[in-house]
Predict the structure.
Amino acid sequence: MNGQPVRERVSDDAAAPEPAVGVGHSHAKAILLGEHTVVHGTAAIAFPLPALPVRAIARPGRSGPRAEVAAEGHFRFLAGETGEAGPPSGPRVAVEEALRRWGMTGAVVDVVVECDIPLARGLGSSAACAGAAVRAVADLYGRVLDAATLYDCVQCGEQVAHGRASGIDASAVLANGPILFHQGTARPIGITVAADLVIADTGVPGSTHEAVAGVRRTLDADPRSARRVLHRATELIGSAAADLTEGRAAELGAAMLDFQDLLAELGVSTPRIDALVTAARDAGAFGAKLTGAGFGGCVLALTATGTAPAVSAALRAAGAVRTWTVTARSLRSPAPSSTASTPDRETHP
Ligand code: PMV
């Protein structure tokens, strides 16, 4: 392969071939339990959110300054031998890793990313954008992308975005169903619990990089307390995995609340997150916790089937700028198209 696109698409005017284009997709994720401690060796449980998709469009690029700006809400980057300085983004690093593996380091590719995932809200936007971008570039150059290569490329980008990335985001944004992730390996996890999940956006962006670094400092400062926290996290994740597969919603909710206490101890909760957790509890949720890196971002609540609308309303009344509901029933089927997370009414800050 010499880096040249292998396909041409013919426009209505058969004499004028359209430039080759590659397209790739991915989606958001939510972590049920195990964020942060997963960076330090525990397992974590996560599920995909296909209702928050990302689409990337790749075209052959040229080095030098970029001539156009992507539409609002979207972003655009050049990857490869661009001649551009500046800090590399996660998606760009992921694409450059793919080009390197394909022996195409001399290529320049122009990628537009259309991301419907709210950025910096713990929903995996950086990994999802990287996954969609690598798939688009593979499509452009007619490359067959196996799951391990795709994961590795996204992980390269995630190391830039998180400082030190466990791989949970890269796994979950590429997964078709809920996963139990442990030390680089994801396996599907069965769900029989009869409950719904409500995700509430605090409206506050949180930096994963800063949160991961802060947790590392907290753990390093007190190794004995670190061992206790990681041991307790391991217990909670293990019991939650069993509760999920054996259908114990109340116990799962209690594990989420206990895990939230650990995350607060690690310093990544905020008064706004705490207020949303309390609001979800007061509205009858089995449990609630932050999801993702924290320092802002989103809260995840587990509710009895049918009570999600009341919990969503309580979360919005307590300051959430928007909420989404995911039915556990939709998570039971691994097919991406059957995993539904529906946006609830939006409010604006
Ligand atoms: O907030 P997010 O979507 O970037 O989630 C990060 C999950 C962490 O456990 C905090 C970091 C990691 O790499 O596992």
